[in-house]
């Protein structure tokens, strides 16, 4: 890659040749009275698929617009490969964007919409190359049969895929994808997620992918950045985010059905440590290692304990030998899993079961916990007491 000082030459010369590293440093962005980004900080790795996951209004789209140069920022830095690009206009940044609202040219066919970026001034693709690239995109996105139609003749999910094709056909250094699959039906979305893993273009570029769907985030992300109220809350690989959430917000955001949370008290005598859950009328034995770890971080006696529905186990025979004696409530079969609500004295818990083993209400059950999967939160800060960066 040639490193020339003039912004324009630098970006033109690096186009196609590198997978850029994108960084936002302490970026503040306001819209009038609304602060959309509150000092946002993160850095992608070269060639990584980085997913920004957060609830509605968290600042995800604003972040992409800032990277693309579609929005000016109040303060902070937007950096491509170590070079601050705050003043570099959009058309000179090596990014390809697909936003949820698909601005397609209504008078062009699908083929021409996808081919359009390849015909931009300065591009030297032959007609054969254009045809090959468009066909390849259309095949990947399962829209080959739509190439001669116009946008007005397409469904929302089809338009979204055409828009994605138009973004990807250019092979930019950085892809910015904003909820590109929201209007695509579940089966095609599943197939496209698999394609995204395989697609050479995405493997050879850096991608920042915005979603509020945790399944998409866990499935696609090399790393996930959790964003809330214009700030990054946690960055980690999918497993870290799922098993070691930084706080209750992250624990809730990732996982469906959502994590079970209970108020608990940490108790220990000379020999044993346990968590007493007064509302549930039971105590969970703790291993010496877990107890020691909690002591090391000066965990308060009163805390909140979380456990995911998949880490609870029930059984009907000899329930008196279990950690907790509970009763079944509602059973819902969801195809690949069953969701059972149970009542432990005053609290309801949810757990995953075999979808084919329907459980009637009011059946006495024994309940056991996977102790190694318990997550301990400070009740005041709601932070994971045993969380660490690694
Ligand atoms: N043009 C604008 N003018 C005023 N406020 C805006 C504008 N664009 C975004 N905002 C506000 O900035 C905040 C972040 O918005 P943003 O669209 O980035 O969130 P998001 O995480 O992408 O949400 P969603 O998932 O609903 O698309 C919100 O409070 C939003 O109302």
UniProtKB/TrEMBL annotation:
Q: Does the keyword Membrane apply?
A: yes
Check the record and name the InterPro entries matching this protein.
AAA+_ATPase, ABC_transporter-like_ATP-bd, ABC_transporter-like_CS, ABC_transpr_MalK/UgpC-like, Mo/tungstate-bd_C_term_dom, NA-bd_OB-fold, OB_MalK-like, P-loop_NTPase
**Gene Ontology MF, one:** ATP hydrolysis activity
The transmembrane segments are: none
A GO cellular component annotated for this chain's UniProt record is:
ATP-binding cassette (ABC) transporter complex, substrate-binding subunit-containing
Looking up SMART domains in the UniProt record yields:
AAA
Matches recorded under PANTHER family = MALTODEXTRIN IMPORT ATP-BINDING PROTEIN MSMX (PTHR43875), TREHALOSE IMPORT ATP-BINDING PROTEIN SUGC (PTHR43875:SF15)
**Protein known as:** ABC transporter related
